[in-house]
Structure formats: C-alpha cells, structure tokens
Amino acid sequence: MAAPNKDFLNLNLQGSIPRLQDYSVSPTLGFMRENPLHKLPEYFDPWWKIVTRIPELVEDGTLRDEVTKMPFLDYRKLDGEPEWRLGHVVLSAITQTYVWVAGEKHIPLSLPKNLAVPYWEISKLLGITPSCCHFNSILENWMLVDPDGLMVVDNFKPIVNFVGGDDQVWFFMVNAQTEMDCGPALCGIVEAQQAVKGLDVNAYIAALEKVEKAVRRMKVSLSRMRERCRPWVFYNVIRPYFAGWDSPAFKAKGWKGLIYEGVSPDPLCYGGGSAAQSVTLPSLDAGLGIIHQPEEKNACNNFQKQMLPQHREFVKALADGPSIRHFATFSKNSRALRVYNACLQAVTDFRSYHIQIVTEYVIIPSHQKDINQNFSHQAALGTGGTGFMTFLKNMRSSITNAFCRIDEGTEIN
Questions:
Q1: Which residues does the record give as heme b binding sites (predicted)?
Q2: Residue 141 near residue 52 (C-beta atoms within 8 A)
Q3: Which of 80, 205, 228, 406 to pair with 157, CA 20 to 30 A apart?
Q4: What is the DSSP letter of 401?
C-alpha cells in the first residue's frame, strides 16, 4: 500500500473533536454563561450592598470608606461554581473601583485584606487571575430586563454596574450580544471538523457557511455600539476603571503592582480587562488554522491566563483537531475552497471593524484636549497592558497567510 501523501497527513484525522458541553460552551450563547446567578446568598450582603451602589459611592467619594468598613467574609460559604463566578464578578467590580476611584495620582499601594483574600481564593477555585477580565465584566455579568422577552441586546442589562450610566450598560451589553452571536460559529467549527474526519465535502461546506454567517452577524452587533455609547464617555469615564496594575499610573510611582493584603507582602501585577481576553476570536483562529507571529502568539497566551481553564482548553482542543484549513485544498473542490476563504474574509472584516471602533473610541479621544486629567497617563495604551493597535493590526495580518488558492486540478463547482 502506498504511503499517504502529505496533504492527507496534514488533515490530522486522528485528532479528537471537542464537544461544546465538555468545555462550558453553549451552542446558542457561545462562551456567555447560560442563566448566571443574579444574587449572592444573604451572608454576602455586605459585598452586595457595596457592589449594587458603586455609581453612587463613586459619585459621593465614600467607596473606599465603605470597603474599609466591610466585614471579612468567609468565601467558603459560597456554594459551588455558580456562586464562585458571581462572587468573582462582585469582587472584581469592587476592586477596580477601589483602586481607580480617586484617579491615577491617588491609587492605593494595597487592597485591604477583607477584599483581597476572598478575591484571591475565589480566583484560585475558578483557575483565573484575581483581576478584571472579560469573564467577570461580560461573560458572567448579564441578565434579561424582561425574563420572558427576547435574547437581544435591547433586553440585556448587567448584573453589576461600574460607572458611566447608560453608556456603560450599552457597552457591556453590545459586547455580550457579540459574544452570543458566536455560538453558532463555534457549532459550525466543530461540525466542520467532523466533516473533515468523515471526508464529507458537502457537510464541510454547510458547516462553514454557518460559521461565515455567524461572524458576519457579530460585526453587525458590534456596529450597534455607536447607538448608545458615546466615545467621550467611554474613553474618559468608563475605560479608566478597566486598567490593571501594569498600567502607566503604577509605573509612574515606581510600583511593580498592587499588594494583596493577607495574600502576599510583595506586589502582584495583573493586566486589566480587555476584549483580547474574549475566547471567540482565538477559537475561530484555532479552528480555521490561522497562525500568528511569535510576538502576537505570546500576547495571546498571556491573555488566556484571564480566561476560564475550560475555555483555554477548548481553544487548544480546536487547534489540535482535524484540520479545516488543509481540507479546503485537499478536497480539490472549489466550493469548499471558496467557503473556507469566505470565513477568513468574515474574520478579517470583523477585525477591521473592531479596529475602526477602537480608533473612534480610544485613539481619537486620546488626542482631544478635553480628556479626563485624572487619568491622563492611560492615553492610547490598552487596558490589558498592550500597545494594542499594533497588536490588533498584526492579528488581522496573520489571516492573509491562511487564504487558499484555487489551483489547477481543483474541481470547479
């Protein structure tokens, strides 16, 4: 028997195909949590009374006083992962506002023990960092305004608010809608890998058509950001509260991070919340075989530390599965090639549109004269600690190398 050719070996037919339910992924909501808890048990009311009054406490300048008076609560009274997740949402919001409420010049050297210890311990239980991230601000932080209403952005609201009023609510929930739109794309990626394993061209085409349609829908949802979230408010009011402990404000003081009292005598350094911590695009990249350059790949690996472990594992499982990219050329079928390239184009278009939004909401406001002087150090640096425009453009450029050509010998359909 002749040895299999290189194209056949590249398909990786021995690779296993992930099941969404094994990785806390929803076929309809993607990485968004289905039916997240909306309230912690009564024992945790001291946390709840602060987190539900954040805008008010920020406005009257009493937030740090209220946190200082907060009793030391036993995190072990949280009963299982749903309560750990909501606890993480609550303590992240309190932490971010505690650190940034008085502006860059007055950031604290440490978090008080009554906040730092439970935050640290719950983070260990979940397998993520004790810091603001996409998980605790978006994926776990949503509910329906009308429980019997539609699953659409106009019927979403955050469980926990930061600052920024209606603009902040809309910013959070447009992100949530975009995440949910990716659910069918993730299904399509898995179905495409199943088609590769079965060498089924028609099933492969149908699956990738589903992927392209979902990614196009993500772009439409993202375009709604402009409806109710104003760039000036986002840049000057909302965005500063997402910054991490590696920000210019900490570096200006010569600090290497934030001390978590009762956890470590040395400062701990974590980046802030960033859309780059979303699992959606890394999953699409992994499934479609998009390879990034070492610098961007290293940055992505760092962002993955702020994802839930099961979501990180899902990205790896897609990357290790049967090759959707190589099947596009192995099939010698022009429809298969075209639908694969159409998926790449949809991802490219989404990334390009995201760059437009970032330009409008961050780059342009950072050069205006009326910026919030309490946060003047942040400028155009990413809240996750990156020089993000270069990063975003390089991530988009990587897709170019994945496009497939229709070569001689390809069946034209």
A1: 354
A2: no
A3: 80
A4: G
Classify 12 as helix, strand or coil.
Answer: coil
pLDDT at 370: 86
Cα–Cα distance for residue pair 345/323, rounded to 1 Å: 18
Q: Which long-range contacts (CB under 8 A, 24 or more apart) does 69-76 make?
A: 70/46, 70/114, 70/115, 71/46, 71/114, 72/113, 72/114, 72/117, 73/43, 73/44, 73/46, 73/47, 73/114, 73/118, 74/118, 75/117, 75/118, 75/121, 75/122
Binding residues for heme b: 354
- What's the whole-model pTM score? 0.94
Q: Mapping DSSP to helix (H, G, I), strand (E, B) and coil, where does residue 203 land? A: helix
**pLDDT one-digit tens code per residue, 106-145:** 999 999 999 999 999 999 999 999 999 999 999 999 999 9
Which residues contribute to the annotated binding site?
A: 354
Distance of CA 158 to the CA centre of its chain: 16
* Greatest distance between any 2 Cα atoms in the chain: 79
Q: Rounded to whole angstroms, how far apart are CA atoms 39 and 51?
A: 11
DSSP string, 26-81: BTTTBTSPSS------GGGHHHHHHHTTHHHHHHHT-HHHHHHHS----GGGS-SH
> Measuring CA to CA, which residue among 150, 207, 216, 206 is closest to residue 182?
216
pLDDT, average across residues 370-390 = 72
In the three-class reduction of DSSP (H, G, I as helix; E, B as strand; rest coil), residue 333 is classed as strand
pLDDT band at 381, cuts 50/70/90?
Answer: low
For tokens 């050069």, the residue is 367
